[in-house]
Each structure stands twice: as structure tokens, then as C-alpha cells.
Predict the 3D structure of the following.
Amino acid sequence: MQYNSDMNQAHRVYRKIVVKVGTNVITGKDGRLDPAIIADLTRGIAELASAGVKVILVSSGAVGAGRSIVKPSGSMTTVEARQVLAATGQIRLVNAYADRFAEHDMLAAQILVTREDFRDRQHYLNMRTCLNALLQQKIIPIVNENDAVAVTELMFTDNDELSGLIASMMQVDAHIILSNVDGLFDMTGEEKKLIREIEPASKNFSQFVRPTKSEFGRGGMLTKCNIANKLSRLGITVHIANGTTPGILQQIAGGEEVGTRFPAQKPKHGRKQWIAHSEGLEKGAVIINEGAQSALTSGERASSLLPVGVTGVEGSFSKGDVIRICSENGKVIGYGMACCSDEKARAAMGKKGEKPIIHYDYLYIKPE
Ligand SMILES: Nc1ncnc2c1ncn2[C@@H]1O[C@H](COP(=O)(O)OP(=O)(O)O)[C@@H](O)[C@H]1O
Ligand SMILES: N[C@@H](CCC(=O)OP(=O)(O)O)C(=O)O
């Protein structure tokens, strides 16, 4: 689909963006950082920032860069080796960016986060305050996963997931995912074709996506598409484009037809955005009966989840934790922030006239 002029205008009004850079955009086969690409990306970000756009950079590449610095000893476990590579590579990575930003008289700051930081509302708010403070000072935040401590189940799927969470937390206008391909290709036919725009109702991306990943990349194209689709439904436009193309950020910000675009849908309230992104981070679950399910999903009025409609409580959670809402046949209906602990929820379940277990303002119902 061709962009129309309104869409082009929309590109020019991005005031706050997240730019996510994949490992293979900035590192070569041996893990060495590519100075020309880093120079081009930092110039692009510096230009946007000077024009008043708030930019948060989420960059992968620590593990990749570590490979060019150190060879972990053969006696190490895979996890230890990865920790060594990430811890050594991260300094190299962030210094490479910081040195380039300095050439544009810009300061950069490093923020390393883990999945836990998005589980805990206080950590979440602390991260948001820090990023806002840096942006206010016109400092470029460079975010990465804290790979030295985030191992196995504590890890994000990949930095596409992490940058999606940041985009939603910061309520940006656009999330730009830079990879080593020009965008999402339709590979179903004889010739692969770049898909310019994704309809919001699209769901089944696996029909296009091959389960291959770029070398050293972690997530692959399917995660990118699923995250992009989710963000667009939350009111954030997503672009998947080639980070090795010179001037790519200016092209996207200038409304040029590059890469694949997931146009933004109606925006949602910030708190609901946080909750919508909590899949996999929940600490427990409530099972609800049919009556409660139709009250929550009908969309006719704003309904909180009351204990009377709850038939089961799973896991151990405290007030303020995110919990999953499931139907009696196990279908996940949505997520919400618990107004009480699991003990209180168990004591109240099935009873009339009790306070909500999840208030409407903290409730996110998954689209059908
Ligand atoms: N339909 C598709 N269109 C584009 N790329 C695809 C598709 N299916 C699979 N891919 C693969 O996805 C890779 C990008 O994902 P990933 O390795 O996670 O990159 P990054 O390191 O930038 O996060 C591409 O290098 C490509 O090989
Ligand atoms: N935090 C890791 C990034 C892992 C990752 O998600 O990589 P990618 O799929 O290239 O974005 C690193 O800095 O090496």
C-alpha cells in the first residue's frame, strides 16, 4: 500500500521515539562494532534530537561486541561465557555511542534493565522517572538488558520485547526497529516482496516469517511483528527497517516510504499500556465465571472485576502485582493489577458486595 500525504504528515509529528538497534546492524561477523554505521545512527539521532524529538536508544550488541574483546575460557558454562561477553562488550558498545554523540555535543547515558524491573510497579515508575529526567536534560538514554545478571528465565525474549516495553512505558509516538533486513518480506510467493504496511487487524505473521535469525540475534522477525502489532493497537506506530541503510532515521522521520510500517491505532491510557504488556510477567491468576467474562468483554460499560464472579485464585501475589484473568476453560481473557493479595482474593471470591479484585482503570482485556 502507498502512503498518502496525511500519513507523511503524521511522520513529521513524531515528538518522542524509541529506536531499537539489532546486534547485526552494528556488529560484524567477528563481533567488531562497525564505526561507520554507529556514526550514521548517532548522527541521525543527534539531528532528530536537535530538532526537538525525544529519542530513547535501545541497543543490542553487548554480547556481539564482547566476542571481539575476550574469548571466554573453555571451562565456563554457556551462561558464564555470555555474562563475560556481555559485561565486557557493554562498555565497548556504550562508549562507541557516547564518543560519537560527543562529536555532536550530546551526552549519552546508560540504563541496564531486567524483566523484574517491569514486574514491579515501583521499579517501573523509577525507570520512567529516570528516562524522563534524562530526556528533559536532552541526554540520550541508551538502554540494554542487564545481561550480566539477567540469565535464563529472568531474560527478556530479546531486545525487541524490551524496547516494546520501553516504548509503551514512555508513551512514544513511534518505535523504530532497525534490523539487517529492509523490513518484513512476504516470502510466500516465488519472489520475496517487501510489505510496506500492515493492516491493524493482521494476526498471522507466521505465514510470512521464516524461523531464521540473523547471526547473534536472539528473537527473530516473528517477535518483531507480534510486538509491532501490539504496540500499534496501543497507539504507537512501528517501523521495521534496515539500520545499515545510511540516513535511515531521517528517511523514516521525514515520511519516506522505507521499511514496513504498522500504523498506530487509537491510543490507550498509560497504565493500561503497562498492563497490556505484562504477558509473562504476571505473578498469579484469577479464574472467572461466564457472567463476569461477559461483563468484562462486552465493552458496554466500564466494569471492574468483582469477587462475586471469581471462581478460583492461583499463585501468590500482593496488591499492585499484575495477574492474569482466565475463563473457566483456561482461555486468557486479559490482565490486571490486583487490588489485594491472593489471600484476600481467596477469602472474598464468590461473595457479593466485596471490593473489586481488579479495578477497571487497571484492567486490560485482550482483543478477540
Ligand atoms: N519474512 C521475513 N522478512 C524479513 N526477515 C525475515 C523474515 N523471516 C525471517 N526473517 C529473518 O529475521 C532476521 C531479523 O531478526 P533478528 O535476527 O532478530 O534481527 P535483530 O538482530 O536485528 O534483532 C533477518 O535477518 C531475517 O533473516
Ligand atoms: N542484550 C543483548 C541483545 C540480545 C538481542 O535481543 O539481540 P537482537 O535480537 O540482535 O536485538 C546484547 O546486548 O547482546
Notes: Residues 78-103 form the longest helix (26 residues).
